[in-house]
Amino acid sequence: MITTSNGLLFQGFCWDLPADNRHLLRLTEKVAELADMGITSIWLPPAYKGTSIYDTGYSVYDLYDIGEFDQKGTVATKYGTVSELETLIKTLHVHNIRVYADVVLNHKAGADETERFMAVPVDPMDRTKEIGEPREIEGWTKFTFPGRGDKYSDFKWNHEHFSAVDLDQMTGDMGIFRILGENKGFGFAVDSQYGNYDYLMHSDIDQAHPDVREELFRWGEWYFKRFNYDGMRLDAIKHIDEPFMLEFIEEMRSRVNDDIYVVGEYWITDVERMRTYLDKLQFHMQLFDVALHFNFERAGKEEAEYDLRGIFVDTLVNANPLNVVTFVDNHDSQPGQALESFVADWFKPLAYALILLRHDGYPCLFYGDYYGIRNGEGAKKKVLEPLLAARKYRAYGPQEDYFFDKNAIAFVRKGDMEFPYSGLVCVLSNGQENSVEIQLGEDRAGQIWFDLTNNRPEELVLDEKGGAIFPVNGRSVSVWAEKTN
Ligand code: CA
């Protein structure tokens, strides 16, 4: 029995799943397979009732309706029912896979009723600028949850609990209407794009309101305890006040469990800004390496023009290796979505080798890359399997980089005594067929190495210094490792 210790996160959904309420069941059937692949944790889709059966869960209507109440025309969510979620999480825990909830605290959508209140329109390109007189508007801000009633919480939302809306029902005007009143306004510690990026969409939650804060803490405690989550992925944090986010994490750790894992979605490529954010959050969390994702996207687009030696330049995994989740693509970056920036098909295996096999970063495998987006389109299961196995069994020990050629780079994992047959040489090319000469040390003299990816058919016999010339096909990756028999 070979032991493994490399962690691997799996994003268990993509954008275009069928709205058939069966995704939770499908995931439950895959749990054993996921554990076998080396998955140690899973990020589940936002489980809340959204605006309709088609809602991905990001347009949250009711945080307490996890597919349990007849609301928005359906009991089940797009993904399934509350009992199916409970079964899935129990099954994941049986297989020692930790479970992260997607936590959406920026906005609510699909209010039950409108209300009239005072608001002022602001410039969408500079939200610090008012572009009209304060006036009474009719906004969708009353959330009374008639289908749930007071079960789990009797908190009802109204305009005092939001900072802005995007529609005046009275006039039909669309825009950004900042809600007026005592202690009202946009959060200060949010992203500075568009002057103040507190407002993203729908009815923007005002986390500065004391009743809102207490309700969200109470909800978080209920949600984590009820479903036994081990961690969370925080949605849209660049639109949420930093002190609130820190307080939320601290509250969850003190009310539920001080081991709760946290990763945040801060969609920005400026590494300095990411580091500042981590500092403000007292390094209580990790961030997705959006900068690395965009390096992958550029490398895929620019093909042989791209200098592979710069693939980790200005990335979070370089700057803060302890606070980073590395990823290739996700539900937002896939084609047709808001943050579309899909990594080119040919570069995907190279990108996955770069997140799965290196020492730094907590890698995240995307459902859409493995099983395909939209009915299996672009599924990379066959290509990714050997890389996942390489992460599970081989990617251990100190790392050495051979980043000398613009179009062919390599790195070595030296291996670790604890993991038999561990150690590897990963070679990547974005141009012609190429090779890199590497010496692995005399203790490896005479060993036979082969390419785990099967991209190269030959076997290599290491010379007296444990050296060989490790080849790679053009626009390809090879992962060389010791033959086991
Ligand atoms: Ca906000």
Radius of gyration: 24 Å
Which segments are poorly predicted (pLDDT under 50) over 5 or more consecutive residues? none
The CATH C-level class name of the largest domain: Alpha Beta
CATH architecture of the largest domain: Alpha-Beta Barrel
> How confident is the prediction overall: mean pLDDT?
97
What about the largest sheet? Answer: 8 strands, parallel, barrel
Total count of strands: 23
Total domain modules: 3
Q: Gap between N and C termini, in Å? A: 16 Å
Shape: elongated
Question: What is the count of helical runs?
Answer: 10
CATH superfamily of the largest domain: Glycosidases
β-strand percent reads 15-25%
Structural class of the secondary elements? alpha/beta
CATH topology of the largest domain: TIM Barrel
Please characterize this protein's 3D structure:
The structure is a single chain. The chain is of the alpha/beta class and 485 residues long. It folds into 3 domains: 9-106 and 211-393, Glycosidases (TIM Barrel, Alpha-Beta Barrel), CATH 3.20.20; 108-209, Elongation Factor Tu (Ef-tu), domain 3 (Beta Barrel), CATH 2.40.30.140; 399-482, Immunoglobulin-like. Helices cover 23% and strands 25% of the residues. The protein has an 8-stranded parallel β-barrel. Strands 4, 5, 6, 7, 8, 9 and 10 form a 7-stranded antiparallel sheet that branches. It has a 6-stranded antiparallel sheet with strand order 16-17-18-23-20-21. The longest helix is centred in the middle third of the chain and has 18 residues, at 210-227. The structure holds calcium ion. Residues 106, 198, 200, 204, 239-240 line the site of calcium ion.
